[in-house]
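The following record pairs a protein chain with its ligand, iron/sulfur cluster.
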Amino acid sequence: MTTQNILNKYNNSELISLKEGVDLYNNMPLADLLYVANEIRQKLHPNNIVTWQIDRNVNISNVCFVQCTFCNFCRKAGSEDSYTTTIEDYRKKIKELFELGGDQLLLQGGMNPKLGLTFYVDLFKTLKQEFPKLKLHALGPPEVAYLAKKENKSFAEILEILVHSGLDSLPGAGAEILSNRVRGELSKGKCSVEEWLDVMRIAHKMGLYTSATMMFGHIETIEERIRHLIYIRDVQGEKLKNVPGFNAFIPWPVQLFETKLGNEKQISPISNTEYLRMLAISRIMLPNVPNIQASWLTVGKNTAQLALHGGANDLGSIMIEENVVSAAGANYSLNATGMKKLIESAGFIPKQRNQRYEFV
Ligand code: SF4
């Protein structure tokens, strides 16, 4: 397939098949992939703007029964250094967040088996009562699926209760690679592919803003990566036109420093060019997902700048706090000034946004 073939397909609203996607990944020169991904990005966002956000990534607890082999953050219940974030900690963190100009907490697990639906309901309600302007971008399909089993409720019931308690939007966390083979090896105990997708289908029906992620570069095949993109594209294609669905896709390379997976298997880190290739393919394969986010935290600032010329139109959050990926070796940092400079020096106009991708 040539770059012109891909653009013709895009212009005619024709989708790229699994076989074509794998072929592009394996055979198209990187320069061509970046060119065509950038053309599609320019058609979707013809304004030279790159968006970014201020939020704070807080982990509710570091106790997690899942024990993913790529996770260096989780602890077993009873470990000396296990914790559950207290309400005093939240107050302090939220005040700092507001002082820095942000208004959103990205609240993530571990999936601590001691914490049930009542805990999350009380937590969300308390935070919203004390900080009415706070936005909660919280949990994800694995937590929703887990709570549904634990509480003997449907995914829809769990989501409705969480929304009623203060959930504003649902992150696409825990997708890793949407392959039950891969999930069985890396994160037994997390929801299946079908469950992950079903939670998102229901969230979309309810009108929730969601995102989708992909953590790649471990034991998955190229075909499994492309199939992951097609799952996201299909679920997005099923949603009603008047709801947002997935408003962003965020591919990022696994970080394996001192993790069980990294210690047990010889896995070479994803190179910058392979990351750019995956990001460009994501833009090309997902014409119905409006925003592609470059992961500066995992690939560094220079590669993130290049990604803005190869399909990405967003750099995500400055991440006042991040614990999970940082515990596995990702140690880049950015403040608001640094983020704006990064975008400007890549040749774009920075615009701060909220979770709905509205400029603020
Ligand atoms: S990645 Fe998340 S779900 Fe997996 S073990 Fe770590 S905290 Fe738990």
